[in-house]
Amino acid sequence: MRQYHYTIKDRMGIHTRPAGLFVNEVNKYESKIIVMANGKTANAESLTEIMDLDVESADRIDIEINGPDEDAAYERIKAFFEDNL
């Protein structure tokens, strides 16, 4: 299992556009990816669940990646957040 922690820098938080891009990225991997924020947990494959986290600017998110391609997924997700949020 790999874990990634990130503090959102985008002034709008996680809104629809980057959330959709994130879900598309996550769906490229076999590993199960979970996002946690604000005391809630979301399946990273679900746009609705990601949006329900209500992540705003300066919120910390925690991501858990578990599966056969977790190392590749970790690197790509890390780059995604640093580039987009």
Keywords:
single chain, 85 residues, 38% helix, four-stranded antiparallel sheet, 4 strands, alpha+beta
In short:
By secondary structure, the protein is of the alpha+beta class. The protein has helices spanning 16-26, 47-52, 70-84, and strands spanning 2-7, 32-37, 40-43, 60-66.
- Shape verdict: globular
Pick out the low-confidence regions: none
Mean pLDDT: 95
Distance between the termini: 23 Å
Q: How would you explain this protein's 3D organization?
A:
38% of the residues lie in helices and 27% in strands. The chain is an alpha+beta fold and 85 residues long. A 4-stranded antiparallel β-sheet has the order 1-4-2-3. Helix 1 packs antiparallel against helix 3.
